[in-house]
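Quick one, probably user error.
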């Protein structure tokens, strides 16, 4: 026989239960009030025993509640929740109310019917639920409204705008080069940057405007109460200018700019979705302009987007089919006139459009990430070509391959280069990787590390477009660089502009002290070549000597030169 718990055990357990247990007799007078009930209602048991159950409820619920209990007593049910959710409102001794979950049960004790009420204060859980509801509408990082609340507020603002005949402007914005900041400074600092940007935006908007974080580094603003486009333009300009002062993030001073796209209700769209979509198209355009800019939506913007989409599809297809070819532009020794290398320049053999130049598709390829597979194709083709020319008896010629930032930063970059060399059988000394000056200055530490790995493979490294990136030559000391390519913009004016002439000459002198060679790009006239030669510039490349040529023609060109040289 299992031992029966004693009455005193029941009592003990009853007394330690954290839930409130209250029993009432047939007249609904309290006959039992446990420790949990004392904690919950803040009455001592002897203050309430014999009192009506009503005192534990807000006055307004007393009557319905009494009826409820009466009905329940009269019903045949033994136990039942008070209502579907089992939620009631309790009242503490001091009059404060709290949400509670309750159930009620009926029993007969010593011939008299007793109702037991079990009740739990759920204030904490309710608070958690409210926090969750807040999370559903607010962004956890910045505390700003999120996309859902933004759309909601926009709809309200549109209704109000219609009533007051005011325009409503939707601004979408993102932080220029946020990904770079994030990658360079770390995610912790990236988060702080987002918070700081949010605060800066808050300061440059009115209390009545909704500022939201829509995700990533994208923010949105609903501007109300402005009379016309002029007013909107001024407000947007103010927001843009508010970033002229740097932000401080983890004790660092960061110069940050934003791009903003604007659409206006009702002119640009009468639906919230339409306004957001249009502002987004305007934002893309502002970004394309190089950032730190704003654009008002114009319907033509979609034509561009549609064009880009079509081109992206085209690019993908061509990548699979192998429609890309390389042209090679020879590089010359300015002293001896011999060919010292070649730059590989990609061309797109478009099935309908014919030969498309890189300026037209490289930016899109970078934006979409297609530059990574495209760059790999270019790299392999160049390596295979170098090997073929060498096997065909040409003296070894390094081939320069352009790498875009995205491609260079790709996690598997060094591995990709290594594999391309191995699988084509090309000698690493025949490969020269060109990186633009601006791209190596963006994240110097990481770039130095990656370049070191490339150098260990034995390949050459050139800095392209030098002179355009605002970096000093002294900076270059830390990079393992073989060649500096002076940008065409300086070369063009060396014979006309004393400043450009001085810059080009200084680049040559300083590069030589750092042990680097210098190649001038875009040399078109004999006068330019003469100037550069006089300043001891090592090499040159440009239309004066040769345009970029298809592989077959390049080979003929080199053989012809070699024959002339005897
Ligand atoms: P870049 O690297 O600065 O290449 C030099 C550009 O100047 C080439 O244009 C070349 O044809 C042109 N050029 C050469 N000599 C002269 C000259 O004497 N006068 C003038 N006015 N121009 C000259 P291209 O081939 O249209 O390439 C444009 C840009 O596209 C390149 O600029 C490079 O940034 C990019 N690019 C080309 N091929 C690739 C590639 O395979 N990968 C990547 N990531 N970018 C590439
Ligand atoms: Ca180049
Ligand atoms: Ca260049």
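Nope, works fine. Designed sequence:
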């Amino acid at each position: 026989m299992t031992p029966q718990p004693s009455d005193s055990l029941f009592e003990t357990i009853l007394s330690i239960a954290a839930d409130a247990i209250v029993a009432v007799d047939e007249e609904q007078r309290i006959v039992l009030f446990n420790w949990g009930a004392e904690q919950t209602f803040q009455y001592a048991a002897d203050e309430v025993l014999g009192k009506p159950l009503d005192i534990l409820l807000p006055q307004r619920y007393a009557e319905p509640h009494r009826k409820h209990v009466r009905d329940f007593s009269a019903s045949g049910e033994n136990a039942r929740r008070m209502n579907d959710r089992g939620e009631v409102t309790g009242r503490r001794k001091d009059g404060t109310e709290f949400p509670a979950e309750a159930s009620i049960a009926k029993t007969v004790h010593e011939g008299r019917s007793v109702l037991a009420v079990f009740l739990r204060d759920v204030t904490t859980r309710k608070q958690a639920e409210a926090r969750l509801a807040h999370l559903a509408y607010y962004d956890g990082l910045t505390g700003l409204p999120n996309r859902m609340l933004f759309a909601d507020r926009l709809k309200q603002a549109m209704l109000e705008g219609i009533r007051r005949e005011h325009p409503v402007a939707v601004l979408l914005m993102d932080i220029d080069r946020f990904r770079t900041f994030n990658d360079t400074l770390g995610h912790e600092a990236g988060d702080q940057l987002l918070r700081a940007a949010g605060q800066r935006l808050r300061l440059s908007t009115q209390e009545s405007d909704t500022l939201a974080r829509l995700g990533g580094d994208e923010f949105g603003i609903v501007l109300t109460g402005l009379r016309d486009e002029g007013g909107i333009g001024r407000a947007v300009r103010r927001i843009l200018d508010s970033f002229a002062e740097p932000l401080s993030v983890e004790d660092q001073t960061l110069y940050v700019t934003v791009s903003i796209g604007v659409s206006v209700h009702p002119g640009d769209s009468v639906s919230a979705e339409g306004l957001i979509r249009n502002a987004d198209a305007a934002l893309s355009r502002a970004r394309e302009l190089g950032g730190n800019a704003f654009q008002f939506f114009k319907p033509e913007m979609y034509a561009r987007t549609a064009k880009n989409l079509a081109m992206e599809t085209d690019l993908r297809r061509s990548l699979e089919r192998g429609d890309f070819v390389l042209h090679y532009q020879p590089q010359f020794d300015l002293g001896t006139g011999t060919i010292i290398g070649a730059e590989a320049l990609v061309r797109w053999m478009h099935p309908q459009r014919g030969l498309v130049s890189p300026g037209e598709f490289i930016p899109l390829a970078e934006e979409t990430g297609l530059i990574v597979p495209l760059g790999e194709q270019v790299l392999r083709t160049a390596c295979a070509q170098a090997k073929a020319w060498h096997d065909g008896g040409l003296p070894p010629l390094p081939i320069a391959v352009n790498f875009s930032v995205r491609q260079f930063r790709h996690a598997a970059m060094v591995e990709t280069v290594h594999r391309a060399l191995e699988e084509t059988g090309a000698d690493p000394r025949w490969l020269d990787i060109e990186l633009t000056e601006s791209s190596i200055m963006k994240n110097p530490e990481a770039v130095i590390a990656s370049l070191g790995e490339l150098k260990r493979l034995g390949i050459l490294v050139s800095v392209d477009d030098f002179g355009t990136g605002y970096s000093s030559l002294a900076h270059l000391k830390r990079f393992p660089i073989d060649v500096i390519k002076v940008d065409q913009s300086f070369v063009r004016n060396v014979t006309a502009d004393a400043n450009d002439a001085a810059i080009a000459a200084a680049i040559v002198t300083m590069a030589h002290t750092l042990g680097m060679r210098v190649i001038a790009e875009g040399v078109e006239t004999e006068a330019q070549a003469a100037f550069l030669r006089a300043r001891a510039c090592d090499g040159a490349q440009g239309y004066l000597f040769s345009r970029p040529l298809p592989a077959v023609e390049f080979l003929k060109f080199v053989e012809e030169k070699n024959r002339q040289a005897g």
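The first helix runs from residue 7 to 16.
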